[in-house]
Amino acid sequence: MDEIEKKMKIGILGPGAVGGFLASLFWKSGERVLCIGKAGDVSAIKERGITIESPIFGDFVARPEIDTELRVPIDILFITVKSSFLKEALRAVNKESIKSAVIIPLLNGIGHAEIIREILGTSVAAGTIGQIEVVKDLNGSVRQVSRQHPHIDIASDGDVSSSRLEEIVDAIRRAGVSASILRSEAEVIWKKLVRLNATASLTAAFQKPIGVIRSDPDLRRLLEGIVREGVAIAGREGTEIDSEETMEEIDRLPETLMTSLSRDVAARVPSEIDSITGGVLKKANFYGIPVPFLEGAYKRIQKRIS
Fold first, then answer.
1. Catalytic activity, per the record (predicted)?
2. DSSP track, 122-180
C-alpha cells in the first residue's frame, strides 16, 4: 500500500488546546484534517490557521479545514471538547458523515462513550490522551508547556475491529504521537483516570502544581490515598492498576504541571469536575467503596467554585 492510500480523513470535534494541537500534528503529517468548531473558531482558523509552539514538534502554522458542522464523510472523529459541552458539540455532527467512521472520545473522566453511543449510535472506541500539557492563548496559538511526548491509548469492546484500530494507531504514530491498543475500554479509561483523578482533584483543590503536592508530606499522603481509592474502584470495574506504578508515573510528571481542571476551577468556568472527581465518587458510591481522601478533595473544590 503506498503512502497516498494510507492517508485518512480525520475530524477533530473541538479545536481547543488539545484538539487544535492534535489537528495540527495530523495536518503536518499529511492527513486530511477537518476541524468542527464554533463560529469564532472557524473564522480565526480560516484567517490565521493554528499556530503551534512546541519544544517537541517545533513551531509552525497548521491550516486544517474547518467548519461549524461535520458535513463530509470522514474515517476517524476525535472528540476533544470539554465534557460539559459534549452534548451541545455532538449536534454539529451529521450522522451521514460518520456512517463509516470510528469515533474516539479523548475527554477526561468517565461516561462519555455512553452519551456518544446514545446520540450518534455508531462505532465508538474508548480513547485517552496523556503526557500532554498544552494551553491556548487569546490569539488562538497553542503552546505545549511540557517536554513530554503525548501518548494515546485506544480499545474497543466490540464496536470496532482490531484491524481498524491498528489503522488508527498507525495514523496517530505517523503524526509523531505514540499510541497503544489496550485489552478493554475499561483498561483505557482507568489506566489514565486513577492517575488523573488524583492529580486533577488535588491541583484543583489546593491550587498548587503537582511538584508541590507530591513533595509536601501531608499533601503526598492525600495523593497516595486518592490513588489507592482509585485503584480499588478500577478493580471493581475489571481493571487491575498498580498503585505504586501510578505513583511512579505521577513522580515523573513535570513539577510545574497544573491540570486543566485546576485552571478551570481557578477561573470559575465550566469544568470537568463532574466527569473526573464527581464521576469517580459516583462509582465509589455505586460499589460501596469508602473514599474519604477523594471526598475531602471534592469538598474543597466545591468551596472554591461555590
1. (R)-pantoate + NADP(+) = 2-dehydropantoate + NADPH + H(+)
2. S-B-EEEEES--EEE-TTS-EEE-S-PPPEEEEE-SSSS-HHHHHHHHHHHHHTT-EEE
More confident site: 6 or 17: 17
Which residues make beta-bridge pairs with 48?
none
Residue 260 carries which side chain, given as an amino acid letter? Answer: S
Q: Tell me the pLDDT tens digit for each residue of 229-260.
A: 999 999 999 999 999 999 999 999 999 999 99
- If you search the block for the grid coordinates 498548587, which residue do you land on? 208
Sign of CA pseudo-dihedral 73, 124, 152, 263: positive
Report the relative pairing of strands 76-79 and 9-13 from DSSP bridges.
parallel
Q: Where are the domains of the chain?
A: 3-182, 188-305
- For 3-182, CATH number? 3.40.50.720
Residue type at 55 in one-letter notation: P
CB under 8 Å to 270, separation ≥6 — which residues?
82, 84, 85, 264
Give the CA radius of gyration of the chain.
Answer: 19
Contact 25, 176 (CB under 8 A): yes
What is the CATH T-level fold of the domain 188-305, as seen in this structure? N-(1-d-carboxylethyl)-l-norvaline Dehydrogenase; domain 2 (1.10.1040)
Comparing CA positions, the residue from 210, 54, 33 lying closest to residue 136 is 54
CA 250/CA 101 separation, integer angstroms: 34
pLDDT tens-digit map of 46-69: 999 999 999 999 999 999 999 999
Which helix H or strand E contains 287, and what residues bound it? helix 277-287
Q: What grid cell was written down for 74? A: 470522514
Residue (of 21, 63, 22, 28) closest to 46 by Cα position: 63
